[in-house]
Amino acid sequence: MATKPKPVFKSLQRKLWWRRWSISPARMTIKNHLPWPLRVLVIAVVLGLSAAIAMWTYDLGRSFTGFKPAATAEQVLALQAQVTEVSEERDRFQTTVNAAESQLNIERSLQAQLNRQIKTLESENVKLKDDLSFFESLLPTNTGAEGISIRRFKVEMAEPAQLRYRLLLMQGGKLVSDFTGNYQLVVTLVQEGKSAMMTFPKSDATDKFKLSFKHYQRVEGVLALPEGATVKSVQIKVLERGAMRAQQSANL
Fold it and tell me: In which domain, by residue range, is 106 found?
């Protein structure tokens, strides 16, 4: 009894027969293999092109927004030129101002000197007028009344606590001898709401109040007063050996 072939064996025979008489080619896989230096070169070229495209895009965007490098450099140069011009103009103005200040200081100094000279001349003018009046008063001395007389007695406040006085003493008559004596000042004032009197000279300053003349003597001086005192009047007395020869008062 013959044995029948198994189905698996028949299937294998069929596949082998089909492959033998089939015209379809066998499967192949083709791999493109590049050397590594060439790969590096290709990568570098790609990166360079990418960077160039990025820079071109950046510059294009700046040109659209108005921030061109060339324009910015021109603006910087223009601004630097303006700053230089302004600095030079400022220096010129500063020089002019310094010269004007120096001239102003000189003029102020000259003005102060002129003011001092004017005050000095005014003071000298007042003294000259007083001297003229004094000498005019001397003219009738020989024919005037005999005795001591007080001429042009003036008082004024020199400072808040200083009193200045001036007077001319004359001795009239045809036959006169030298007069020797002293004078005394009595100041009436108000201090702290109360009336008071002060007599000059003090005991330690009698020598400054002595008199010695034949026809005339000019007298002037300054009295020191208490702070805050208000002078009402001043009286002068001319004394000879304790006897009063003449007196006169002046009010402020």
Answer: 43-139
